Amino acid sequence: MPYITTYDDVVKAQKIQSNVIRKTSLTFSDTFTQLTGSTVYLKNEFEQKTGSFKLRGAHYKISILSEDETKNGIVAASAGNHGQGVAYASALEKIKCTIVMPKNASPAKVAAIRGYGATVVLEGKNYEESWAKAQEIAKTTGAEIIHAFDDPYVIAAQGVIGLEIIEQIPDVDEIYVPIGGGGLAAGVLTAVKAKNPNVKIIGVQSKSFPSMKKSLDSGKVET
Fold it and tell me: Tryptophan synthase beta chain-like PALP domain spans which residues (predicted)?
C-alpha cells in the first residue's frame, strides 16, 4: 500500500523549507468578489523564485534525498514549471540535473531551466512521452527521478499552501484548487482538513481535460 501523506508531513516540510520557500501573499480580488457575491482572495504563488508553486514539492523532495541517492544526478519530466523547480532546487544542492520536455515546450521555459544549469532533453510530443524518456534515462544512468505530483514528499510540500491560507485567513470557508495531476489538491486537502474540517475544498479542472473528474466518476485512473 502506498504511503499516504499526513498533516505532520506537511508541518515538517514547512519547517525544513523555511529558508528557501516564500510564504506567498493573498490578494483581494474585486472582480471575483463581484462575480460570486463572496469575498475572494487569490494566492500569489507567482511570488516563488521560479514563478510557480511547483518549486515547493521539487525542493522538498530533493532536499531530503541522500548523497547516495543523488550521486548519479536527478532527472524529471516537465512541460515547464516542475522542470524549473527541479532545476533550481538541484542547483541549490549542487546536483547534476536533466529535464526532459516535450518538443513543443515553451522556449522561455526551456531557457529558464537551462539558466539554472540543468541539461534539457527535448523528447516526445506530450508529457507522457517525455515521462517515458525520463524513466529510460533514470534506468540507464542511475539518476533519481522526481515525479511532478505522485510522491508523498511533493504532496506534503504543496500542502504548506493550505497551512499558509489558514494562517492568513483563519475563518476561510472555501478553497478552490486547480487540479492537474492532483498533488496540489491532495496536499492542500491534507493540511486544511486537519486544521479545520469544516472548510470546503473544491477542485477545479478544465472541461477539455477533466481526468480527475472522470477518474472519480469511473472509480479508476483516467488520463
Answer: 19-221
Helix axes 54-63 and 152-168, enclosed angle (nearest 10): 130
pLDDT at 135 over 70: yes
Pairing of strands 41-43, 26-28: antiparallel
Grid coordinates representing 27 are 490578494
% of residues, the chain, pLDDT over 90: 90
Q: Which three cell numbers stand for residue 185?
A: 489538491
- For the domain made up of 7-51+151-218, give the CATH fold: Rossmann fold (3.40.50)
Which of the four pLDDT bands, split at 50, 70 and 90, describes residue 1?
Answer: low
Strands (DSSP E) found in the chain: 26-28, 41-43, 74-77, 97-101, 119-122, 144-145, 174-178, 200-204
What cell numbers appear for 212 in the block? 480527475
Would you kindly state where each structural domain of the chain is located, as residue ranges? 7-51+151-218, 58-145
For residue range 40-66, what is the model confidence (pLDDT) as tens digits?
999 999 999 999 999 999 999 999 999
Q: How far is the C-alpha of 58 from the C-alpha of 148, rounded, in Å?
A: 7
CA nearest 98: which of 81, 78, 124? 78
Burial class, 207, CB count within 10 angstroms (exposed 0-12 / middle 13-18 / buried 19+): exposed
Please count the residues of the chain. 223
Residue with cell 519547517: 15
End-to-end CA distance of the chain: 22
If one looks up domain 58-145 in CATH, what number appears? 3.40.50.1100
